[in-house]
Design goal:
mainly alpha, Four Helix Bundle (Hemerythrin (Met), subunit A), 4 helices, Colicin D immunity protein domain-containing protein, Colicin_D_sf, toxic substance binding, Colicin_D_immunity_dom
C-alpha cells in the first residue's frame, strides 16, 4: 500500500466513527489493531497524523470512573477524529499534486 491508499483506508475508518456508524469503543479497538498491523509504506507527514490519532485512540476510556489523568472520553475522541479526518483530507489533496 502506498501513502494515498493508506490515507484513504484510515479516512474511511475515521469517517465511520464520525458518522456514528461505529461506537467509540469499536473505533478505538479497530484503529489500534489496524495501526499496529500496518505494513504499508507512507510518508513521515502521514505517519505523524496517524500516530497522533493512535495515541488518542489508546487514551480512550469508555468508563468515566476508570479514567486516569491522561485518558479521554468519547467527546474528546470524536473531536480528535474530526481533526484527523481534516488533516488526512488535506494530505490526500497534497499527494494528488
Amino acid at each position: 500500500m502506498n501513502d494515498k491508499d493508506i490515507i484513504q483506508k484510515y479516512s474511511k475508518l475515521i469517517q465511520r466513527f464520525i458518522q456514528n456508524e461505529t461506537t467509540a469503543s469499536e473505533f478505538s479497538d479497530e484503529y489500534l489493531d489496524e495501526f499496529i498491523e500496518e505494513d504499508g509504506e507512507f510518508s513521515e507527514e502521514t505517519y505523524e497524523i496517524l500516530q497522533n490519532m493512535f495515541a488518542e485512540a489508546e487514551a480512550y476510556c469508555e468508563n468515566p470512573e476508570l479514567r486516569g489523568e491522561r485518558d479521554i472520553g468519547e467527546a474528546e475522541l470524536r473531536n480528535v477524529a474530526t481533526e484527523t479526518a481534516t488533516k488526512l483530507e488535506q494530505r490526500l489533496k497534497d499527494t494528488d499534486c
